[in-house]
Structures are given as structure tokens and as C-alpha cells.
Amino acid sequence: MNFAGDSLTWIFASAATLLSAAVLLFGEWYFDANRQGSFRLLAAGCWAAFLGALFAGDWLVFVVFVELSTLALWRMIAFRDRKAATLYLLVQLAGAGLVLIGAAGTATVTGTVAMGPAAGAWRWFMAAGFGVKSAFPPLHFWLPEAHSKAPAPASAMLSGFAVKLGIYGMLRAFPEGFGPLPAIGVTMVIFGGIMALFSADLKRLLAYSTMSHLGFMTASAGIGAVAAAALYAFVHALFKGLLFLAAGVTEKATGTRDLASLRGIARTLPGMTAFLAFGAFASSGFPLSASYIPKGAILASMEALQTPWLPTALKLSGTLTAAYLLRAVVPLVTGRQEEHPTETRNAKKDTSKMPAWAAMAGLTALLAASGFFTAWIPGITASPPVSKTPFFFYLLQAATGFALFLAASRACRSLPCGLPDTFGLTLKTTKCVFASSDLLARMHGGLLNFYALVVLFLFLVLMLALCGW
Amino acid sequence: MMPVLAVIVPMSWGFIIPLVYLFRRKLLDQAILLFAFISFMVTLATAFSGWQGYNVAFLGGWSAGLGIVFVVDKLSAAFLVLAATGSGAAFLVSYGRFRADPWRYYVIFFLLQSAMNGILVTGDMFTLFVFYEIFSLAAYLLVSFTMSWQAIEAGLKYLVLGTIGAFFILLGTAYIFMATGALNMAILSVSLPQAPPETLTVIAACLLIGLFIKIGAFPVHFWLPDAHSSAQTAVSALLSGVVVKVSIYALARVSLLFFLETRPAAFTVITSIGILSILGGHLMALRQEDIKRLLAFSTVAQIGYILTGVGTGTAAGITAAVFHAFNHMFMKGGLFITAGQLSEDMKTRNISQLRGLYRHRPGFVIAFTVLAAAIVGIPPLNGFMGKWYLMLASVDAGNIVSALALAAGTVISAFYYLRILSSLYSPGVPPSRRKPFYWPFRVTVTFAVFCVLLGLTAFMPPVWKAFSTIGTCALDTTAYIAAVLVE
């Protein structure tokens, strides 16, 4: 058993701590009395598991704590949707298994399981395992389901930190970078952006937006820009946490996540809309937003390389980001006021909402500070160099993003919204597994003649196999 | 001397119990308890006698070439401890439920224990077959002991398929004798390589398939689901936990002594059958409605895990396999005992009808949860550590498919154990009467605690180093031969 910690650990650990503290505080309001106790236990356990994974000194301990955090999150998702929870658990177990195989292979090459770079072909297993955790396409099929159907505090922890464990693993396993990752990252950014743009559901939009941001971090890990990726992960934890918590309050107050039904909610829930708008701005990457410095740092490290397509593609993706963020926020503000079965109209100003507001306000304050300087984050010694992009470029992005948003809204009004994703493939795979199971079951009919024939058949096969060639 | 006692002592109880029943019936309760305790201690003592070095007993003073030899080395010692613990636990569960009423059951039980110890200590091929016959007969009778029609049908299937397996083992032994003129395992380890290669192929095929049938490896496992699910609770726990492990020991011993240099393909065969068992067992368990049948198929899959460990042919692999054998005994023993008690309560073995049991018997259900988490491979329990060491050994030997099968197995087993757990925890109408199940409960909880302890201690390097000497000793055929061919 080994534990170690360096500055990379500290950045992620502080992100985990800040996010978990906010979520625990939020949970005081969100859950009613009979779930409170279990939620506190699970959230605190999950936090402890995150820290255990981050401070692990070897891969085995890392996987142990990651799986423990998976168990805690599974129970939390199961509070609301058991099928999504089971999907999450099974997929994460598969991912952890792949990481274990990669670690075992690395151990045969390097002789030790210590947390270090993966070796040779085993990097593919590690990448696949982390890809399941961090939603590489096509291994991402669980993400929209689990993140949107979980209760808000669980979604915040999932999108805010659990997926980052895959990024952390990648940063540890590939400190020099790994070839396919930048391309996968760019695919994630664009795919996530398009799916988010055409989402019908607020939390699903946020889940795809997580995938998009993870693409940035993956591409950064792929070129070996460890510090920039870590900084982005830190800031992402904060703003994604804020967005999911605010979305959670909105869902609890109105009873729906559907973007069409949430039009004009700004009049009844001004505070939540403000938090959502601030969180969206913080995630946009525009100057003065919290993600400006991290995004700029990633782009700066990419510009230092000889592959111009990478930073260009990521810079252009800003249009998609702007578009889906506008889609998340603008209808809430400008849409026509519909009849909402809200509690906020009739609810008295009770102090029970204080924990939720305190959590979200705290995250907002930290994000606002990060927009100006990042030196306060533990593990960051100084603000990293940022890519020099003219301000005009951002205005252009905002304009084209707005146009894209209008086009998408028009499309969504006439067509059914929500593009199909790979989830259908999962169902087909599960059906295949069950079909093979039924086929095997037919062999167990109880006929002794058949069983004896199988024995003879296997005997002949063994004779052939053991021929000694 | 000790290895002989490990065989003679339980066998003599088998013959003395009817005498006690006839002449001193009042003493039967205490007598059986005493007999079980003495068997347990003798088996453990035999195990410890073989831990430091080779403990070889020459029956009648004849040397290896002429007589029968019993050898206890670290591999045998580990399995003897496993057999003692498993049998002891199964005895406690039966005794706690029925006391000494079914005295014939205890006769067969002790004969089975004697035969298992015999297989574990024997150094001679034909003696192996003889003990296998006693072992099989006792197992068939124990399976059909309840005399329900399912039990009798299961016992009959086990008898027919098991006899086919024993036939192949005998055929292999006969070929060995015809080819080399010797039956002692140490002598054969030296002289089998000189046999003609075609004969070696037939010998290997016969022995392997005979042992695969006894182990219950896919695709010759068809007797196992019926036998393990139709037996009584304690017998199921004994069968799944101990009886299959003894056959795995026999397979390991025979393969390591005879086929390591002459037919390395045998190990590839063992690994492939292991992978087939993992996939076949887990896929079959996926659709089961009957909880004990599901656990039996889960046993087939876990046997596959252990076989992939044996099939690596390395010290690390054998160690991982032995470790997982211990793990499986604790996990599956506990699961079968709990399943047996819960299905007795609800008068059904159907999973979807086993509802509301958390309110009714919280202790059992919590223990079941821990054991199920262990067998799925959730850290930091022993199933996860077993899986990790098996993965490490497989990858080291170059078998990536085994490692992938292990990972896939975790996902599939998580699915079907979750189904059972969600049924147990869901609200339902529990039965009104509640019979106390003291000994089964204590045994189950002890096993669950052992699962946690084994999981945590396997992390510690000193403990694992001590354990890995089992693997290195198993592969050390030169030392084995030297210890036996002393005179």
C-alpha cells in the first residue's frame, strides 16, 4: 500500500474538496429527512474515496479507491433512477477492469505497480479504461443517462469530479502524452457540443457539455501538457458543480428538466437563472471568465507544437460552446412565461434554502476569482502563459454562436429534439448477451446422452490439441 | 505417519459411527462432535507437518518403486487446510441443524473427508484413483441424501457423468502403467518423458478430461448445477467450497509433475477451458430464476478463474489459483448457507419471490451482501485481490484473453448478484414464524469476516510473500522427486 502526493495531486484534491464541500452543503437542503443520513454518509464516503484515489502511490490502490467512489455514486444515483445507476456501476466496473489489466501489464514490464507511466501496448488498455471513466466516444454512452437521471448533488459529483479521475489517471499514465488522445479529444469536443446543442433536457445538455470539456482535457493530456489540463480540471469542477446544483434547484422547483417547459423561468426563479447564467459564462472560455486562463494555457501549449490543426480546431469549437450555452440560458430568460407549478411563488422565505444558496454562492465567488488569477489554487505556482487571441475573435465567436443557436432553436421547434446516441447500441449488446445465454441454456436440457456426447467430443478435441506439434 | 492418519482417522469414524449407534445410542451426539473435532485437528496437523519441508510417509516401509507413498508439501498443505476448514464449517452447519439424527449422513460425510484427504496426500496414481472412487461415491450419496426426486435425479446425473470421468482417469492410469511400468508420481515424473509421444498425448487427454469432468469445468460441467442446487444446504456448501477444489488440486499436481516439460500444450488447454468456464458459467447464471442453481453456475465461473491461474504454469499463477480457491470456499460456502436458510424460510428458491428478507433476517442479508460483493470482485474484499493476482499472473504469462475474461466476468456477475440483492432488500411479506438458525448464522458471519480479512491482508507484502512460497514449492518438481526417491 502506497500513498504519495505532488502538486498534481494537490490541484485535483483541492478541486475534489471544494466540490464535495459544496455538494454536502447543498444536500442539506435538497434531500428530505429520511434520505439525509444516507446521503451524508455516501457523499462523505465518496469524497474520502476521491482523496484516496488521488493520493494513491500505486495503480492497485488507485483502482480500489476509484471503485469505492463508484459504489458510493451508484447508491446516490439509485436514490432516483435504479436502471441508470446499474448501468453506471456495470460500465465503471468494466473500465476499472481495463485499467487493472493495463497496470498488470505495466507491472510485468517495469516490475512494479507504482503510479508511473504505462509501458508499450499496455497504454491502450489504460487509455481504454480511462476512456470509459472520462467518456471517450464510443465508450461515453453511459454519461448522458447517468448524469441526467441522477439527483442533482450526485450529478454534480459525477460531472464535477468522478470523470476527472480518468483525466488524472491519464496524466499519471501518459506524462509525455499519447498519440491518439488529441484526436479523440477534438472528437469529444465537437461531438459533445453538437449533442448539447440539440438536447431537449437541461441536465442532458450539461452532461454533453461535460463531455465537450473533457475533450479539452483529454487533448491536453494527449500532448503532455499536464499542468494546463489539471488547471482546466480544477476550474471545470467548480463551474460544472455550480451548473448542476442550479439545475437541480430549478428541477426541484418546477418538476421538470425539459428546456421547452422551462421557458421564461427567470421571472419565478431569478436567482437560479442568474447562477446558471454565471456558470455558463464561466464555462465559455471568454476573457474574464473562469475558464479563460485554463483554456488559454491549453491552447498555448498546443501552439508550441508543430500540429496547427489541433489548436485551430479547438479555437473554432468555441462557436459550438457559445451556441449551446446560449441554448441553455436564453430561453429561460426571454421565453414567454408559461404556467409553472412552482413552489417559489407560495413558499415563504424560509432559511432552509440557506445551505443551497451558500454552496452555490461559494462556488460563484471562487469562479469569479479564478477569472482574474489562478495563483491561489494549491499546486499552481504561478498563472501559466495564455494563448494570445485577439478580443475581436471572441466577439466573432459569440456572434456566430448566437446564429447557430437561433438555427438550432428553430430546428428544435419543428423537429423532435434530442439526437439519438449510442445508447441504442448498448441495448442491442445486452440483448446479444442474453441471447447467447439462452442458447447455452438450451444445451442444459437434461439429456444424459447429449452430455456424454459432449464429453466424447471434448476428448477428441483434447487429443488434437495435445498432439505435440 | 501424519499423512496416513489424515486418511485413516476420518475413515475409521465412518466405520465406528454405526457401532456407536447400535451399542451406545445415547453417546451418539457427543461422539460425532468429538470425531469431527479430532478429524479437523488431525487434518490441520498433517497440513502443518508438510509446511516446512516434504513430509513423506512410506506405507509398510516399502520404497517408492514398490509401495505406496503419501507426500505432504506446501501445495497439499494449503489444500488440506482448505478441506479441513470447509468440512468443519459444513459439519457445524449440519450438526447445528440436525444434531446426530441422520447418522448415516455422518458416516458418508466422514468417508468423504477421508477420501479428500487421501487425494490431497497421495503420491501414487492408482491410489489417487482409489480415493477418487470413495470420494465420488460419498459425493453421489450426499447429493441424493434428501431423497427428493430432484436430489435423486441430480445424484444419478452426477453418478453417470462422474463415472465417465473416473473411467477416463483409470484409462489414463492404465496407459501410464503400460507405457512406463510405474505408478508412483515421482518416478513417473522422471520416466514419462521417455514414453512415446503418441502415448503421452493419449495419457494427457485422458487424465485432463477425467479431471475436468470431476472439477466441473465447462463444457463438461452439466452435472454441477443440478447436484449443487439439489443438495441440502451444508452439502452444497461442501461441494462447491471444498469438493471441486480437491479435484483442482489433483489436476494441478498431475499437470505440474507430468506435463510441464513434455506437453506444455496441456497448460494452454487448461487456460482455454478456464476461459470457457468463466464465460459459460457467468452467461448461464445470468438467466437463472433459482437462487441455488445461480450459485452453482457462479461456481462454474469461479472454477474457470482458478483454472486460468493453474493454466499459467508459473509459480505466481499457482499461488493466485490457490488464493482464489480459499477465497471461493469462504464466499461460496457462505452464500450457499445463506441461500439455503433464506429459501427454507420462504419455502421457495425462486429469486423474485425471495423478497422482504432484510426486515426478516437482517444479519443473513447483510452477510450475503458482503459475500456477494466479495465474489463479484469489489475492492477491498478478497475476491478483488484474488482477481488482481490472477490478472497479474495471466498477463505475466502472456494470456491477455484470460485477463479480459476476468474483467468481463466482474461486469456480468455484478449484474446477476445485483438482481438477487435488489430482491432481498425490496419490501415484501416475510414469513411469520422465525426458526433460529444459530450455527449457520455464525458460520456465515465468520466467513464474511474472513472475506474482509483476507482482502485486507493480501495487500500486505509479508503475508503475500509467505503465501507465494506455495506456488514456488508446487513448481519445484526436482525437490519433490528427491524427497520421494530417497531410499
Task: Describe this protein's structure.
The complex is a heterodimer of chains A (469) and B (487). Chain A is 72% helix and 0% strand. By secondary structure, chain A is an all-alpha fold. In chain A, helix 13 packs antiparallel against helix 14. Chain A has two domains: 7-419, no CATH class; 428-465. Chain A has 19 helices and no strands. Chain B has 20 helices and two strands. Chain B has helices spanning 2-23, 28-49, 74-98, 103-121, 125-143, 149-180, 185-191, 197-215, 223-230, 233-259, 265-286, 291-311, 315-346, 357-360, 362-376, 382-397, 400-425, 438-457, 461-475, 477-484; strands spanning 55-58, 69-72. The radius of gyration of chain B is 21 Å and the shape is globular. In chain B, 78% of the residues lie in helices and 2% in strands. The model of chain B has no long low-confidence stretch (mean pLDDT 92). Classes of the chains: A mainly alpha (469), B mainly alpha (487). Chains A and B meet through helix 3, helix 4, helix 18 and helix 19 of A and helix 6, helix 8, helix 11, helix 16 and helix 17 of B.
